[in-house]
Amino acid sequence: MRRALAALTVIVVVLAFSPAAALGGTCDTLKSRLVRGGGSASGLAVMNAESGEVICRRAASTRRPLASNMKMFTTATALARFGPQARIATKVVSDGFFELNGVLRGNLYLQGGGDPALGAPAFYGRFLGGLGTNLFALKAQLRAAGVREVTGRLYGDDSVFDRLRGVADSGYATSPYIGPLSGLSFNSGYSSSRGSSFASDPAQIAVRKFARALRGAGIQLSPGVALRTAPADAQTLAVVRSPNISQLADATNVPSNNFYAEMLLKLVGAHFGGAGTTSAGAAAVERYAREHGVSVRAVDGSGLTRSNSASPSAVVRFLQSIRGEEIGDDFIQSLALTGAEGTVASRTDGSAAAGRCRVKTGTLTGVSNLSGYCFNRSGKVMIFSILMGSVSDLGRAHLEQDRIAAAIASY
User: Fold this and answer.
1) What's the CATH number where 101 sits?
2) Which pTM was predicted?
3) What domain count does the chain have?
4) For residue range 324-367, what is the model confidence (pLDDT) as tens digits?
5) Domain annotation covers residue 12
6) Of the four listed, 80, 103, 107, 114, which is most buried by Cβ atoms within 10 Å?
7) Pair type for strands 235-241 and 42-48
8) pLDDT-derived band of residue 224, with 50, 70 and 90 as boundaries?
9) What is the 3-state secondary structure (H, E, C) of 201-247?
């Protein structure tokens, strides 16, 4: 009898201190919450980052739509390929030569580098928290270079990207959810600093605004502007550079900015995929994921196209692998802090997850996702991915996701 009681005591102790018990109840409780919030077509994976042990899973190997969780793969690839401190250059170049009295005999080209932040201070100050690249800083550099008159024309060069304005979700046309994509974008593709409507051709808007600014600075130009690719041997006269890639990743992930994600994807394609296209960038993202032992289907950079997909296990393994890379800290800090920032600013209030998890949300019709890291008071780091694929009530989905995150943060 004493041996039986002793054995029973051991069993009780093991259960009491098992990982499932520590997760605010049992793994079954988390799985019940998952289905309650997201329906039967939902998956979950939870990993202890230190040990690599997956301590709870449900349908964790089944691919689900990533929605905006796709942005994690896009920004991680951009950070790794370019480096966190890299900046995107927008240039003014010329095919001409200087004569006396500041006359430039030839043409000027406003050459876009694919900078998503290029715009007017009035726009990015109002809509983007002051983060941006001031196109008009180029005029002072031209004045300083001695340019007073240009005998030729001012051209816009957007050739770093193709001219497809959207992604597969909108038939590659401009979407209500993404400003028109361009290698020479301006004000996130809007036609004015008020952000009221999209431009049909962002590069045309950029070069017209710049021409007006140059004339206002006393530089004489021929009337009219057009688009043309600058000669390869054109001389650089002025340059402005974007915020660094780490800042652009933060500006993509925290508010879930679709435009920034798609511009970064095309930029990756232009530099590391052979073409400034969505498909080239998506292929580069898939290659980067494979380097980390993970399979993801990338169709765009933002997740708007439903066929972007991966399993919860793949997301968790990817996040675990990125954590150990040189870009790990920059990537993690680019995710929204629960209860404080972006798409989760008003979520997890009063729970163990508040202020302790860095996460990415994702929403499409019938889809609600939450994945990321929790840095617990116990010192443990937890990684999780919740991919809900048959959501009927988004509020309920968020509630159950937050409860799962709180349990994970209590581990």
Assistant:
1) 3.50.80.20
2) 0.93
3) 2
4) 999 999 999 999 999 999 999 999 999 999 999 999 999 999 99
5) no
6) 114
7) unpaired
8) confident
9) CHHHHHHHHHHHHHHHCCCECCCCEEECCCCCCCEEEEEEECCCHHH
